[in-house]
Structures are given as structure tokens and as C-alpha cells.
Write a structure and sequence with these properties.
This protein is an alpha/beta fold. The protein contains 14 helices and twelve strands. The strands form three sheets. A seven-stranded parallel sheet has the order 3-2-1-4-5-6-10, with helices on both faces. Strands 7-9-11 form a three-stranded mixed sheet, sandwiched between helices. The chain has a two-stranded parallel sheet with strand order 8-12.
């Protein structure tokens, strides 16, 4: 199968039945919007929107999907919903997604991120309609090595904090189900389900209001005209616009559908190397794009505070080589898209205008060029207007 552009690949979703856990979250809302625009029939299983405001509510997505309010720790209800919806494709995004909350509530973190993954994969085993599964984990699933080059998919898993360890655990669970059940031949001698785990960087974009994330923290301070308090300005992270890894997930699902044995397994979808940069660089770019603002270093009075890796990078050579996926945005372009969205929101644009802006950002991303061309450089900036 040849891939001429991301737009051609996304025609695959027209009429497909797609099931998303965690669809009310930031990343899940963008994925839901993208799939609806491509003609998919979407069902979502999630707790209520995790923040207020929320992107899910702002975009009015609940009116266009089958929405189920449920917890992935509720194995019986999750299985009943999956059985009733009979999806063909599953995206598993439901998670406890915050490192610092993992320190506060370690059992919850393991119950949701590991136990919830077990519950979903058990339900999929009993749902014959499913053909392809994407389990979203994290770049923090890797065992910290203290090096500055990017982690590859075959690097050791593990984490020195509950969140990272829980994501490593979800990876191990998914691998066990993949090899024991989903890639095992059925009675017809054909693989049953293609299953991949995906690891992205620090995603940013419009509509994220989560606590303890740099960009939402920046936006809250900028709107309040207060200094942005930062704990680790020197830390390096793989920043990327939310549409970058989502594009990779969408491309990968189609490959799983047609060639499950070849494309099942772990995948990195990280940013271009220059977008793995320090927190302080992101701060300076955010303030410049916003038009005003300042930052200060937060005081850590407790030496027993949560440990944070100083440098974290991802190597995405596998996705670029085998999927012809390539990151399209520089950090400047990703932040420009992000700031434009928030300025529209806090400029009191209507819900309809924000929905139009979000759809336009997706469309612009689709039109950026051929993802199969490794010679194209990530775009420096993209401007949008409502």
C-alpha cells in the first residue's frame, strides 16, 4: 500500500465504527473531532470532562457521538458497552495522566493505567468486531538512563515514579495480550486483532486546562496577568502539537487493519529533534506570541518533592521509516497554533467559532504536505484566522 498523503489515509475511516476511551480529555477531544470530520461513527467511554473549561464541552462533541459515562476500572460495564457498540477500531486514551498526581495517588494511578488497560483488553477479547487497537501510553514509560539522545522502542521500560511505572506496566500488559491472544491465529488461521502501543511527547495545543502542565499553567498566568511560576526551567522535554502524534495513530490504525502482524507492537511518535527543548525556551516563545507576560522560578522548599527527569527525548525513526510519518511543526509553529486557539477562547469567541477554528487547524495540518517525503522540513509557522 502506498501513501500519497495523510488525507488519502484518513479516507479509510469513513463509515468505520470507532470506540475511544478517554474521549472527554484534551487529546481524546481532538481525536474525536478529527474522526468525525473524516466520517467515522464514534462511540466514547469516559468519565466526565476532567477540567472546567473543557475542550470536549466547548466543541459540543457530545451531540455527535454515542457517549458513555464510565470508569475503565468498572470491568463489567466497560465490557457491556463494548459488546453493545461492536466497534471495529479502538483507541485507548483513558488514563490518570499526571506525574505529580501519581505521587499523591499511586494506587489510583496503577488501578487506572494498568488495571484499566487489562479491563479493556479483556473486553476486546470478547468482542469479535474489533480489528485494530491503539493503546496510548507515554514517553515516560522508558527507564530513565540519564542520556541525552532519544529513547527507541526497544529500550528498557520502567519508571522511578508511579506514573512512569504505570505506563511501563500498561506496555507490558498490552504486549502480553498481543502475543498471547490478539496475534494468535484463530480457527481460520488468520490473526484476530492488530494491537499497537504508542508513545508521544509532551503534547500541547488549544483546549488543554489540566493542572501541572506547562502550557495550561502559562495560559492561566498570562490571562490573570501574573508571573508564570516554573519549577524546572532548565528541563528538556519533547514538545509537540497534539495533532502530530494523533496523525501517527490514525496512519498506524490503517496499517494494523491490513497487516496486523507487521505493524503490531510499540511505536514512538515524537517531535523533530529541535522541538525537544528547554522549558525556559518554551516560556520565552509563549510570552512573545501572547504579546506580554513574565515568568519566575518557583521555590521548592521540600527536598522530598517529586523527582523529574532533566532530559527526555524520543527517537521516531521507526515511524518515519515504516509508516512514512514525519513531524510537521517546529516548536514555534506548534506554539503559534496553541496561542491562537487560547486567544480566540479568551477573546470570547463563540462556541461555533471555536469549533470552526479547531476544524480549520486540523484541515491545515492535513494540507501541510506529503508525510511520505522525508526531505520536507517541519514548518516554522502556520497562521490561522477564525
Amino acid at each position: 500500500m502506498t501513501q500519497s498523503s495523510i488525507m488519502d489515509d484518513l479516507n479509510f475511516f469513513r463509515g468505520r465504527r470507532v470506540f475511544i476511551t478517554g474521549h472527554t480529555g484534551f487529546k481524546g477531544s481532538w481525536l474525536t473531532l478529527w474522526l468525525l470530520g473524516r466520517g467515522a461513527t464514534v462511540s466514547g467511554y469516559s468519565l466526565a470532562a476532567p477540567t472546567s473549561p473543557s475542550l470536549f464541552e466547548t466543541l459540543g462533541l457530545i451531540a455527535e457521538i454515542q457517549h458513555f459515562n464510565g470508569d475503565v476500572r468498572d470491568a463489567q460495564y466497560l465490557a457491556s458497552v463494548l459488546k453493545s457498540e461492536q466497534p471495529e477500531i479502538v483507541f485507548h486514551l483513558a488514563a490518570q495522566p499526571l506525574v505529580r498526581r501519581g505521587y499523591q495517588y499511586p494506587k489510583e494511578t496503577f488501578d487506572v493505567n494498568v488495571g484499566g488497560t487489562v479491563n479493556l483488553l479483556e473486553a476486546i477479547r470478547e468482542t469479535e468486531s474489533v480489528r485494530a487497537v491503539i493503546c496510548v501510553t507515554s514517553d515516560k514509560c522508558y527507564h530513565p538512563q540519564g542520556w541525552e539522545w532519544g529513547h527507541r522502542e526497544n529500550d528498557p521500560l520502567g519508571g522511578h515514579d508511579p506514573y512512569g511505572a504505570s505506563k511501563a506496566g500498561a506496555e507490558i500488559v498490552a504486549a502480553a495480550y498481543r502475543d498471547s491472544f490478539f496475534l494468535a491465529e484463530n480457527d481460520g488461521g488468520v490473526c484476530k486483532v492488530g494491537l499497537a502501543t504508542v508513545r508521544a511527547g509532551n503534547v500541547i495545543g488549544g483546549g488543554d486546562w489540566a493542572k501541572d502542565r506547562l502550557v495550561p499553567d502559562c495560559i492561566r498566568a498570562l490571562v490573570a496577568e501574573e508571573p508564570i511560576a516554573v519549577r524546572h526551567p532548565e528541563a528538556i522535554r519533547p514538545w509537540q502539537h497534539v495533532l502530530e502524534p494523533l496523525a501517527g495513530y490514525l496512519i498506524l490504525v490503517e496499517r494494523l487493519w491490513y497487516e496486523p502482524e507487521k505493524y503490531s507492537g510499540p511505536w514512538n511518535f515524537g517531535p523533530s529533534p529541535e522541538s525537544a527543548c528547554s522549558v525556559v525556551r518554551v516560556l520565552h516563545l509563549m510570552i512573545r506570541l501572547w504579546g506580554r507576560g513574565r515568568w519566575k522560578k518557583a521555590h521548592n522548599n521540600s527536598a522530598a518533592g517529586p523527582r523529574e527527569t532533566k532530559c527526555l527525548r524520543l527517537n521516531s525513526d521507526k515511524a518515519m521509516s515504516l509508516l512514512s510519518w514525519h513531524p510537521r511543526y517546529t516548536i514555534q509553529a506548534a506554539l503559534r497554533q496553541t496561542v491562537e486557539w487560547y486567544q480566540a477562547f479568551y477573546g470570547h469567541r463563540s462556541a461555533r467559532e471555536l469549533r470552526t477554528l479547531s476544524e480549520r487547524q486540523i484541515h491545515q495540518y492535513e494540507m501541510l504536505g506529503d508525510h511520505s517525503s522525508s526531505r520536507r522540513k517541519p514548518l516554522e509557522s502556520v497562521k490561522t484566522t477564525v
